[in-house]
Amino acid sequence: MAEDLYSVLGVQKTASADDITKAYRKLAKKLHPDLNPGNAAAEEKFKQVSHAYSILKDPEQRGKYDRGEIDASGQERPEARYYREYAGGPEGARYHSTAGFEDIGAFSDLFGDMFGAGAGMRGGRGGGRFSMRGQDAQYHLDIPFLDAVNGTKQRITLPDGSTLDVTIPPGVSDGQVLRLKGKGMPGLGEGPPGDALVEIGVRPHPVFKREGNDIVVDVPISFDEAVLGGKVEVPTIGGRVAVTVPAGSNSGQTLRLKGRGVKGKGDQLVRLSVMMPETVDDDLKRFAEDWKKSHAYDPRRRLKEQA
Fold first, then answer.
1. For residue 191, with 0-12 CB atoms within 10 Å meaning exposed, 13-18 middle and 19 or more buried, which class applies?
2. Which of 189, 192, 91, 180 minimizes the C-alpha distance to 135?
3. What is the pTM of this model?
4. For the chain, what are the domain ranges?
5. Counting C-beta atoms within 10 Å of the first and last residue's C-beta, which end of the chain has fewer, N or C?
6. How many angstroms separate the CA atoms of 298 and 292, rounded?
């Protein structure tokens, strides 16, 4: 990947970590293969965006990239040979550093002497192999509200075209990070692979809201239901149920359905809202006028007393 990583995400080099994450999420939602079936250009751009984010989101990797220690593909750049004056050397002799080339045998011996054969170098002297745990891979997954509260399984399409199956536990919250052991980048030598860190984004629901482990839903009731009470049908995250509205109910009154919240631990809160009919006909007007003559009251009395 030769293109500048910042340009891939459409941000400046001085962009904050939050700005980089926001730019990635915006592009990922637009370019995700699931939303662009058969669009090879979008899929390729999605891979580039995901790769750029995988480097720039990591402060250490971003620093290396900014300093030119790694290229846009994430590979380390070879160290340049250099010369410097050897202090006190005879006749102005120069010290020639060839670390990583002619002196590699001595360099390996030094590592073996310092750390021992089991601390990252595998095998004997001269044939050693460096082992290191693989890096963690970070992904973002947006899921529907009901999948978050009830649990589900989702499949992520990775930048290289492979897939990763993710089990979403019931009650996962927005911003929560799931760790998938051993599903990250491969290790070096005999080192184990890293983990996959999947950040969950929960899409809002048009009816339900979440407050801790409680589920909140606003339910409108008619004028006569508020006065007389009765049974009304209410949606829950597990299906529709019949709820008894007490006679004389008011807007803002909350009914609690035990055990119908997140994970079966929370409750569902049903907030009532009294709705007048769309059209007030003559019968209702006459009824209100007659009722007002003998039952007039001030619903704002407490407000006036407390103000």
1. middle
2. 192
3. 0.54
4. 82-124, 136-204, 208-306
5. C
6. 11
Q: Give yes or no on whether 136-204 and 208-306 have one common fold.
A: yes
Handedness of CA 257, 258, 264, 266 (dihedral sign): positive
Residue 174 has, within 13 A of its CA and on its CB side, a CA count of 12
Residue written as token pair 């202090």: 87
Reported as a pLDDT band with limits 50, 70 and 90, residue 127 is very low
The pLDDT of residue 118 is above 80 = no
Structure letter (DSSP) for residue 70? B
Contact 160, 185 (CB under 8 A): no
Query: What is d(CA 128, CA 204) in angstroms, rounded to the nearest whole number?
Result: 54
Domain 136-204: give its CATH superfamily: Urease metallochaperone UreE, N-terminal domain (2.60.260.20)
Residue 271 burial (CB < 10 Å; 0-12/13-18/19+)?
A: middle
Reading the block at residue 17, the tokens are 């970590």
Angle between helices 59-66 and 40-56 (to 10 degrees): 100
